[in-house]
Model the fold of this input.
Amino acid sequence: MNKFAQFVMGHRKTVIFLTILITLFLGYSITKIQIDPDILNYLPKSDPVVKLSQYIGKEYGGNLLAMVAMEATDIFTPSTLKEMDLLTNNLQRIEGITYVTSLTNILDIKESDGFIEIGTLIDLEDNPEILNELAELKDYILTKDMYRNKFISSDATTALLICQLENDIDKVKVAKAIKKQVEELELKSDIYYGGLPFYLMEISDTIVRDLKALTPLVSLFIIITLYLSFRSLTGVVLPLLSVLISSIWTLGTMSLFGIPLTIISNTIPVILVAVGSAYSIHLINKYYEIKSEGSLIERAEKTLFSVGLPILLTAVTTIAGFISFIFGSYLTMIQQFGVFSALGVFFALVTSTTLVPVLLSLVKTKPLLKRKDQPTVYSNFITRFSSWIYTNKLLITIIGLLIMAISIAGIPRIQRKVDVLDYFKPESSIRLTEEKIMKGKFGGSIPIQILVNGEIQDPAVLIEMKKVQDFLATLPNVNNPFSIVDLIIELNAAMGEGRQIPDHQDKVANLWFFIEGEESVDQLVNRDKSEALIQATLIYAPMDQITGLVDQIEQFIADLDSPVCTFTQTGMHSIYKNLDHSLLRSQLQSLLLSLLLILAMVSLLLGSFRGGLIGLIPIIFTLTVIFGFMGYSGIPLDIATVLVGSISIGIGIDYSIHFVNRFRQEKKSATNSKDALIETLQTTGKGILINMTTVTGGFLIFLFADLVPLQRFGALVALTMVSSGFGSIIILPAIILLLEKRIQIFSS
Amino acid sequence: MKNLFLILLLTLLLIFPVLPGITAEQLTAKAILEKVDTLLNAPQDQKIHIKLVLIDKNGKEEENRELIMMQKGEKRMGKFLSPASQRGIGFLSLPNDLFYVYMPAFKKTQRIATRQKSGKFAGTDFSYQDLGTQQYSEEWSSQLVESDQENYVLQLTAVEGNNTGYSQLMLWVNKTNFFPVKVEFYNQNNRLCKILTSSNVQEISGYFIARELEMVDVIKNHSTKMFLEKVEFDTGLSDEFFTERYLSR
Done:
């Protein structure tokens, strides 16, 4: 470390020059960074459910739905229907949309006066006279299950246009194109939007808005706290500079490798603020602490020499913690997050051990930190505080254990949510639309799909399909089950054979003649007639209900055990189930893995396994508090909050290493443990407190965010900071003092 | 003044060759189209054995279909020979939108209201409209847009009352025999939707007919090839043949 410090100080100009060069290069690269809020792009391609869903998307014209709802006092007026027709045709032309289905282009089968009418339901192009018979048309449409509550609300005030999107398309772009098209048409009807593409669009917009509004506030808060702590400009500028540069380097590298920013990786700068700023804070804290008579350069060198190692160790353990996210993550975006936050921490380590000391050595600062022999409010307080810990070590340990026990009891209460809708506040327009329109008037917007393999024209297969559809109809929150069976029954009825599945395959084959090649048929059956799709929609529901639903459908299919065909379930709801399941599993896996990695590293570092275990105390304390809090407060585990565990580890281990390292150093020179504790808390403890206050306050500002995950994330990070901080300056010392005689490394 | 005269002269010289061209082309476009109509509607009646090959978006061939189609004026009747599942299905198309289908499995003839002219014929890329008799000059106004070595290229725009379901057509007409060798179909949104190419044009009993037609749905990337395997003209089909009673036989 000494050589490194000398080397850095010997190449001060090179350090500054290189930093500027790299920052400019990577900063330019950031301008080309892409943002991809779509979780679906990060599903593992190996998951059979995902595979099947993508297959269906490709073969049957997209399984991702964007809904456009038109609201008017009555849909069945010439002007509204014309608007609907116009909108349907215009949406159809948007790139990325495969089909738009609405009342004005859906295939209708009708029997009247002895002949079958097959054609578009409301065909304004070929049959404009239909506008003269609106009352009859309305009656006809509202009595048909195929249309009511699917394309038109039963009160006839709202109509739905369902857009199917191509696979692997930029959903946000399509959503924006739809919205733009609607705005350009200047329709008289009120328009509402639903479905995942619009949620994703809203999320990316809200993130940008939130970050724009809140980042300045967070920065301002951090600046003020840092200034109050160090009472010098250097103390404010350097930590922020280090965080800024490492963020630029990380995002720039991502952009360089063509990896887009996701709803998870956009928290990387935030993590760097929390974790990375600590490195410079400890360094500056030490720099002010050294009462060296030497030159600025010597002081900087000495600072680097004495805290360089603990900073290196904390960074390496944090990197190990993040790297553990690469293994066992279901979403590839979490793996990317692991890699790049580890890289970000590495960059923060590099800048705070090179640029920061170099800059420190260049600026002549007068630290306002009073000399230690002139007691300050802080040092007085610390002295009393340390004695209090010393005398109450048993009580503190017990209270700590009690808090942990209460927290652990709350962990089973943790809810899990993976649906995107949960990202919005209940009063947001997206949620209101979902409640009022998608849920209230139609059957929801999450597609459920069941693939049927068999000879589809065989009545036996159709009967089995009907059974599955009838079962779907009995499930709560599931609506509009639909398949080719409905069209066949309709045609059979039109042939005068009653509303039932024909009794012979030849009849089915004959009926096919009427509808073969129709677009709506291509979305239900493949051309070979060896495969068909049963579709339904699902209302947004809590995760345990969705999981239950998937299992129920699975069970029904298994019990059916049809000899003539097979059924396979897929759709957003099954993907949500897998996502949810894996979220929990990968969370546990990666937490466990990183704890083991860190335990190994700290044990090695301290040369004692017991010491390693002690070092883990702040982390374990924080993790239990965080998860317990989530359980009691109702903050669910979702793809954003799942990351808080990793931040807890990153921060907890840093505090812990800094504390243990300093305490052991002080033990060597101090007469007793109490003095060593006082000295540790006066110095390193102060660094921890500054870091803790700064980041906690900063993150509490995120409580004002519009996007719910950002709010929750802010609250949890703040809690993480507080519990890691207190965990390492109160509980950790109490336990060390309690056990110091039994653990060699603390007793010597 | 002299300059002005010169400019006027030059302008006239420039315009002159164009002016008669425009009128001549307008006349020609209509004339060409009438010649096409005459050519296509020349036979008294026809009896054709058709083989249909459907090709999906991956270029894979689907099950073939075969049918016999008889036509006399605006009356048409067809009967499917294959695939087995559709064997015996018959259809009868009469003027005034009368359309009947005979379903052998039901032993029943059903009248169908073909509201939708652009509805697909038996899963192919041909619509009922595409298969019907064509009277281009009545439904379309035409303009000659190009004329090369082999073909006239006409742009057809729907006239009032056109109910083909298309807004515009581009027609490539062979200069020597006036057979339409290629048609581009534009839908109501003015987007190119289908392309019909006729090849192997032959003269049989004094009538011109393409033995091979390919219709490509460019939006869905699906296509249908139609082979006219056996063609007979003027066999003396009586009107009685084109009745519901005959259809179910």
